[in-house]
Structures are given as C-alpha cells and as structure tokens.
Amino acid sequence: MTEPRKYHVLFLCTHNSARSILAEAALRELAGDRFVALSAGSHPAAAPNPFALELLRARQIPTEGLRSKSWDEFAAPGAPPIDFVFTVCDDAAGEVCPIWPGHPARAHWGVPDPSKVDGTDDDRRRAFLQAFVQLRKRIELFVNLPLRKLDRLATQQAIERIGTSPRAGGA
Q1: Has 116 been annotated as catalytic?
Q2: How many angstroms separate the CA atoms of 130 and 112, rounded?
Q3: 67-82: average pLDDT
Q4: Is-catalytic flag, 22?
C-alpha cells in the first residue's frame, strides 16, 4: 500500500521574513509527516528576520533551510502542485498572485506584523511570540481537519473559518 501524498502548503507574506517563515516552521514541526510546508513573498527580503529565527531556535524548532524567497519560485514550470495557500499579511492578501500549479484552496489568515513593532528588543520579541502563537493555533486547527474526507467546498469553508475563529486568535 502506498503512502498518501503529502499536502503542499504555501504561506505568503510580502517580504517572507517573519510571519510566513514562522508559519512554515510551525507546520513542519506540527505535521511535517503529512504536509510539505513552504513560504514565499511577493517582494522577499534578503533573509529571514533575526527575531523570527531567534524565537524558533529558543523553542527548539529547526531553522535549517528557512530562507526568504519569491513566490515566483512556486509558480514556475516544474514547481510542485500547491494544495493550500494562506496569506498571513494583509498586503499579500490584496496582491494579484501568480497562478499556482494544482489550483489550491486559499484563505487569508492575517496576523499583525511583528517586525513593525517599535520599542525595545523585548517588545519586539513579545510581538514575534504573539504572531507565532496565533499562527500556531491556526495551524493546529488546520492539521486536525479531516482533509481526506472533506470535499473541496467544505475544505474551503473550513480553512476560511480558521482565519476568523476566535479560538485561533482571529477577528
């Protein structure tokens, strides 16, 4: 018997340096056996935000392979089919995205940008932690959906609800 194919999940944020990187790492940690976690941005930064990497390392979440990258990488010929696309910043949600191979289900899971927080390093660390906790709660709900049993419409509705659920830190 063959193993079921892993779902490919792409988290998008404009710069792919903080929230989308945190989400990618969280999904890998929580359900890397069932999902391929990816992240990208429309205008990627040169590298992931140091506060994001610091937070992940402090929680003993692997950071190897995390890098800021363009979403064009996942729309190019030969890219893996994407099953789910989650925008985690309002800017990316409003942008015209490429056509993704696989015609993925999409939802907006907006989270405030921790890299825009002014203040001390401790203030910024708290902001990154809040963003991570909110994303992780949403990802926990997502990975516990019975995806293989849901039809496309039910799946779409479920992932949209996660982005607005008070249990997941949504609006």
Answers
A1: no
A2: 9
A3: 92
A4: no
Catalytic residue among 89, 93, 107, 131: 89
CA dist., res. 102 & res. 51, Å (int): 33
Confidence of residue 2 (pLDDT cuts 50, 70, 90): low
Distance CA 27, CA 83 (A): 14
Instruction: Check 10, 13, 18, 26 and give the catalytic one.
Output: 13
Catalytic hit among 75, 79, 97, 143: 97
pTM greater than the 0.85 cutoff: yes
- Residue 120: name the closest of 45, 51, 41 by CA: 51
13 is catalytic: yes
Average pLDDT over every residue of 44-58: 98
Predicted confidence (pLDDT) at residue 75 exceeds the cutoff of 70: yes
Q: Does domain 7-164 fall into CATH 3.30.1360.40? A: no
